[in-house]
Design goal:
The chain has about 400 residues and is of the alpha+beta class. The chain folds into three domains: about 230 residues, Thrombin, subunit H (Beta Barrel); about 35 residues, no CATH class; about 90 residues, Pdz3 Domain (Roll), CATH 2.30.42. It has eight helices and 24 strands. Strand 14 and strand 15 form a beta hairpin. The longest helix is centred in the C-terminal third of the chain and has 14 residues. It catalyses: Acts on substrates that are at least partially unfolded. The cleavage site P1 residue is normally between a pair of hydrophobic residues, such as Val-|-Val. It holds the Pfam family PDZ_2.
Length: about 400
């Protein structure tokens, strides 16, 4: 068995382009600290904004700053978090066999001669090479009492066997119900029936600056708790058209892929999926899939084993200030149609190159990425209406949403 026990991790080594370097792995990074001395300095509940002589005080009347304890939350949620162990089959070739460095091209006149020669010199060379296997580790968590578990797609990708290790050390076998590579989510189901501890997905996004706690399996250690804050929202790291990540600064490392990040109520606000790291380790910047995305994907995977997304058949580009000025738009917002797929839903409805999509069913489109996310939420076959800017005025197009082709 070829062991790959360094755990899986999406490591995002440079600001861009992220897509080529977000390959296999995991989680959040960076610990948040708060100076007690700074808190003492806020006795009058006043902070002064930067601005020299024109600085204005920021009133913090009624605000009480207090370091939270995560002990109660950790005790409550840890039983629902599992370590995920995956055995994968890898393609195998012999060193000097048909796919080795000494291979002859198919149809070569000496191919038969050298095959016979190799068999005479080494009778074992004609035998198929043994199957190679690799093992990787990640994290996951129960989302239902009957044994459904959420993790990352990249954790269980190409899995031949999946095992879950609970917080109590019990090992359970599981099957992959379905995966969604576009959001890097996967749904598992424990093979053994039982009543499992589970956690709830949060109904609302956390605010920037809120405390959060991540639990997972860094470096195969299992059951590790770490805390930090939500440091940003809506991050696009170049992993796909639906990027909308929470940025979190909790100290998380390899093996935490697929593990949950909780708010102080013990609700899952995100699923850890990638870190920004020049070295491959925690430097304080990590990304989690928001709970709202997790909820919709899990429901689809549980029902159908796949995720069906809406599709209108257009290639889109951002509306820059120069583009907006050229076409007479007041604001640089919306999504510019670069091309409309022949016989696609949008083309059939009359959309064409140069149109700018401003709204979907009356809801304004901020940019091209926002349009992709909005359309993806529609079920194939849904009726929709697009507001489009063409020839200096708004027009409306109604049509039926198509089904997005497989990745």
């Amino acid at each position: 068995m070829n062991s790959n026990e360094n755990n899986t991790q999406n490591t995002f080594r440079q600001p861009a382009p992220a897509r080529s370097i977000l390959k296999r792995g995991a989680l959040i990074a960076g610990a948040a600290t708060l100076s007690i001395g700074l808190m003492a300095g806020l006795a009058d509940n006043l902070l002064t904004s930067h601005g020299g002589a024109n600085a204005q005080p920021i009133q913090l009347s009624g605000v009480q700053m207090q370091l939270p304890s995560f002990a109660d939350v950790a005790e409550k949620v840890k039983p629902a978090v599992v370590s995920v162990r995956v055995n994968s089959r890898l393609a195998s070739t012999g060193e000097d066999g048909e796919n080795g460095p000494n291979a002859l091209p198919p149809g070569h006149p000496l191919e038969r001669f050298f095959r016979q020669f190799d068999e005479q010199q080494n009778p074992r060379s004609s035998r198929p090479a043994p199957e190679r296997r690799a093992m990787s580790q990640g994290s996951g968590f129960f989302v239902s009492q009957d044994g459904y578990v959420v993790t990352n797609n990249h954790v269980v990708e190409k899995a031949s066997q999946v095992e879950l290790v609970t917080d109590e050390g019990k090992t359970l076998t599981a099957k992959v119900v379905g995966t969604d590579p576009r959001t890097d989510l996967a749904l598992l189901k424990v093979n053994e029936s039982g009543n499992y501890p589970f956690v709830q997905l949060a109904g609302a996004k956390p605010r920037i600056g809120e405390w959060v706690m991540a639990v997972g399996n860094p470096f195969g250690l299992g059951g590790t708790v770490t805390a930090g804050i939500v440091s940003a929202q809506g991050r696009d790291i170049g992993s796909g058209p639906y990027d909308d990540f929470l940025q979190i600064d909790a100290a998380v490392n390899r093996g935490n892929s697929g593990g949950p990040t909780f708010n102080l109520k013990g609700e899952v606000v995100g699923v850890n999926t990638a870190i920004f790291s020049p070295s491959g380790g925690n430097v304080g910047i990590a990304f989690a899939i928001p709970a709202a995305t997790v909820n919709s994907v899990v429901e689809s995977l549980k029902k159908d084993g796949t995720v069906a997304r809406g599709f209108i058949g257009v290639q889109i580009q951002p509306v820059t200030a120069e583009v907006a000025d050229a076409i007479g738009l007041k604001d640089a917002k919306g999504a510019l149609v670069a091309s409309a797929q022949v016989d696609g839903p949008a083309a059939k409805a009359g959309l064409k190159r140069g149109d700018t999509i401003l709204a979907v069913n009356g809801e304004k489109v901020a940019d091209a990425r926002d349009l992709s996310r909005k359309i993806a939420t529609f079920a194939p076959g849904s009726k929709t209406k697009l507001t489009v800017w063409r020839d200096g005025k708004e027009r409306e197009f109604s049509f039926e949403i198509g089904r997005q082709p497989a990745a």
